[in-house]
């Protein structure tokens, strides 16, 4: 997967090292020697299929072009594009040779991604002796990039991460990176627990064989192409499928998925394709923040895109316990995360109002009335409603002010065809986030305008809910 201190490493899966003409020529000779990925698969049991590999130039002229899977003939919805036999699919059951051990390790120590990354890193040290050499070489070529994507922000520099300033995604990147580091510290323990791995590779233990940065690169590369199979055992649910991602493009409005069938993993297309068109698959109901972190792209037509507004009852409120009980009775927590889906911002704001009103109740007799009621009903005066809506509007204004650019400035940046690819995808993300927040702000303002004329909010309640 990633270069270690061996002579078998061709490229970094991801990273900043440039490829010169000589190294490209060497790689081309190796490809001639071994054939391309699809040829290797046919030699090892791939039945005839309806796809082939095409080449697209990289957005970075210093990097090699990338491959993608395209239709080799006209396809109709319902056609099987390809069926990859299980011996050509990498799962933990195959890696560890024991389903019980695989489930034990991933339940108590490491994620499936970490185990798969470790396996491919050791396989790469085998060089051409590894059965998986042609597949690993293809992953190296892709450098963790999808068909139209850049590297995951997990591999961006500090300056590049500043493109995400104002976005909660930036904090998610740091949190995910710290999680990868924690997994790295567990590698040696897993190495000795998994006797099959220890016996198979007579090398140094993981943390001696691979520096953290190399492990992180491998982890991110595996993350960008792993497939989550349904209706299989835990030891098979995460799979690396040659001809799967990143050679297949992800799209949020697609319903085609790689599916486990008897003895294989197959792809049934959900739409017609003309010969030569790239094949796409569904990436699951993921918001754009996850698409960027996992795969390095943003989907502007993502109906699953969403942001989170977190509200918390004030723990210093003398009536906190009563309010907490009322919130729980109505399906909410003392710290409640509200999901704001794109296109449904007004509904999300209206869903927040009962919870926020509860926080504004201050009179003990009013609180008793709320406790005795059968629903999420709080006594609401126009002045209290104005206070609640003012707090919401101020919250959304503050979040929008946290971005260093405006929506119009984002649009101007994206109109530049020479914009750095990482900055482009980051700008796409923050632009879409701002649209959601702006729609929420507009919804709050519209509700304020529906209040009786001259309604003025009172002084803020001393124990108003906390919005984050």
TrEMBL record:
Bias kind Polar residues: ranges: 1-14
Residue spans of biased composition, Basic and acidic residues class: 16-28
Region (Disordered): 1-28
One Pfam family recorded for the sequence: Rubis-subs-bind
CDD domains (alphabetical): SET_LSMT
Gene3D superfamilies in the cross-refs: Rubisco LSMT, substrate-binding domain (3.90.1420.10), set domain protein methyltransferase, domain 1 (3.90.1410.10)
GO biological process, one term: methylation
Residues of the Rubisco LSMT substrate-binding domain: 315-437
GO molecular function terms listed in the Swiss-Prot or TrEMBL record: methyltransferase activity
Keywords associated with the record: Methyltransferase, S-adenosyl-L-methionine, Transferase
PANTHER family attached to this UniProt entry: RUBISCO METHYLTRANSFERASE FAMILY PROTEIN, UNCHARACTERIZED PUTATIVE METHYLTRANSFERASE
Name under which the protein is recorded: Rubisco LSMT substrate-binding domain-containing protein
């Amino acid at each position: 997967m990633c270069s270690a201190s061996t002579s078998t490493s061709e490229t970094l899966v991801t990273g900043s090292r440039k490829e010169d003409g000589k190294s490209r020529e060497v790689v081309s000779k190796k490809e001639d020697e071994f054939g391309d990925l699809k040829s290797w698969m046919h030699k090892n049991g791939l039945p005839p299929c309806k796809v082939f590999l095409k080449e697209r130039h990289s957005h970075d002229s210093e990097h090699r072009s990338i491959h993608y899977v395209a239709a080799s003939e006209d396809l109709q919805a319902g056609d099987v594009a390809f069926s990859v036999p299980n011996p050509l699919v990498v799962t933990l059951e195959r890696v560890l040779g024991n389903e019980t051990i695989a489930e034990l390790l991933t339940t108590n120590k490491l994620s499936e991604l970490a185990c798969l990354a470790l396996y491919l890193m050791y396989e790469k040290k085998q060089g051409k002796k590894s059965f998986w050499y042609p597949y690993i070489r293809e992953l190296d070529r892709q450098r963790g990039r999808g068909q139209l994507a850049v590297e995951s922000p997990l591999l961006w520099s500090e300056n590049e991460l500043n493109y995400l300033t104002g976005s909660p995604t930036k904090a998610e990147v740091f949190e995910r990176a710290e999680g990868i580091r924690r997994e790295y510290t567990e590698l040696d323990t897993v190495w000795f627990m998994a006797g099959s791995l220890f016996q198979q590779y007579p090398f140094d233990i993981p943390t001696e064989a691979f520096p953290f940065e190399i492990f992180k690169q491998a982890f991110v590369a595996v993350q960008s192409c792993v497939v989550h199979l349904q209706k299989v055992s835990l030891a098979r649910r995460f799979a690396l499928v040659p001809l799967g991602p990143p050679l297949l493009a992800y799209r949020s409005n697609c319903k085609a998925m790689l599916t486990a069938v008897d003895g294989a993993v197959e792809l049934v297309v959900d739409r017609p394709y003309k010969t030569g068109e790239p094949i796409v698959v569904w990436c699951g109901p993921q918001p754009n923040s996850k698409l960027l972190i996992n795969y390095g792209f943003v989907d502007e037509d993502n109906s699953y895109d969403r942001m989170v507004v977190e509200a918390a009852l004030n723990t210093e409120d003398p009536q906190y316990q009563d309010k907490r009980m009322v919130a729980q009775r109505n399906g909410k927590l003392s710290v409640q995360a509200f999901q704001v889906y794109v296109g449904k911002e007004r509904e999300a704001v209206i869903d927040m109002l009962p919870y926020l009103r509860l926080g504004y109740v201050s009179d003990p007799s009013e609180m008793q009335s709320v406790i005795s009621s059968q629903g999420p009903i709080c006594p609401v005066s126009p002045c209290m409603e104005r206070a609640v809506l003012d707090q919401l509007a101020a919250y959304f204004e503050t979040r929008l002010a946290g971005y260093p650019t405006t929506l119009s400035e984002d649009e101007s940046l994206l109109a530049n065809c020479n914009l750095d690819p990482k900055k482009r995808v980051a700008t796409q993300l923050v632009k879409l986030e701002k649209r959601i927040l702006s729609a929420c702000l507009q919804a709050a303002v519209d509700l304020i305008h529906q209040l009786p004329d001259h309604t003025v909010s009172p002084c803020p309640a001393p124990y108003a809910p906390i919005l984050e």
